[in-house]
Amino acid sequence: MTKMRIYPRSSGRSNGFTLIELMVVIALIAIITTMAVPSWQRMIVSNRIRASVNDLTLSIQFARSETLRQNGPVTVCPSSDGVNCTASGYEAGWMVKTGLPAVAATDRILQDTLPKQRLTMVADATTVAAGGLTFLPNGALIGTFPQGVRIAVVDDPATDTTLERYICIARTGRVRVLTQTLYAALPAGECGPP
Questions:
Q1: What is the 3-state secondary structure (H, E, C) of the chain?
Q2: Torsion of CA 40, 42, 45, 49, to 10 degrees
Q3: What is the pLDDT of residue 192?
Q4: Is residue 193 pLDDT above 80, yes or no?
Q5: Please, which residues bridge with residue 113 across strands?
Q6: CB 99 within 8 A of CB 73
Q7: Was domain 19-70+116-185 assigned CATH 3.40.50?
Q8: Across residues 82-89, what is the average pLDDT?
């Protein structure tokens, strides 16, 4: 049988980190954090824009399907109070309602969306003048929109223009979401830039 040797513990140095080691680790954490924060902020802005574009696109598609189902006009319009169509931007909220933009006693609110924070959702002038997007029972838009309807979704304040998205609704009701580059490349008459 072999005997186990027990080595005495050295009492000259204690276990742990030195001050220099801790300072190096803290400096590395600070460097990594300063590199990660801009990417994190960009991701937050990108997600905010994507979520708002998806919400508005789904509301537009819902309105188009409801107009076919109910065989009557359905409107998507900006609404800051959730009851009436207002002249505000879509970032203040919007609603989907039966009927035309002017509120009538027989209109029903089908969907109400809350305001979007730190975004600007700008529709072109013809859409604002019309009071929103109104779909006919055949799925087409009411109004004179020769190039379709354009809604720009931009971070407020605008920090990165590559994150901007454009919702493009053709007269037939087809909805597309475009980046700034694709939007600028569209020819006139195809829901491109004015």
A1: CCCCCCCCCCCCCCCCCCHHHHHHHHHHHHHHHHHHHHHHHHHHHHHHHHHHHHHHHHHHHHHHHHHHHHCCCEEEEECCCCCCCCCCCHHHCEEEEECCCCCCCCCCEEEEECCCCCEEEEECHHHHHHCCEEECCCCCECCCCCCCEEEEEEECCCCCHHHCEEEEECCCCCEEEEEHHHHHHCCCCCCCCC
A2: -130
A3: 55
A4: no
A5: 94
A6: yes
A7: no
A8: 84
Q: Which of the pair, 113 or 171, is modelled with greater confidence? A: 113
How confident is the model over 55-76, as pLDDT tens digits? Answer: 999 999 999 999 999 999 999 9
Query: Where exactly are the structural domains of the chain?
Result: 19-70+116-185
- pLDDT tens digits along 143-165: 766 556 677 788 877 667 788 88
Structure tokens at 97: 């309602």
Q: Give me 47's structure tokens.
A: 């997600």
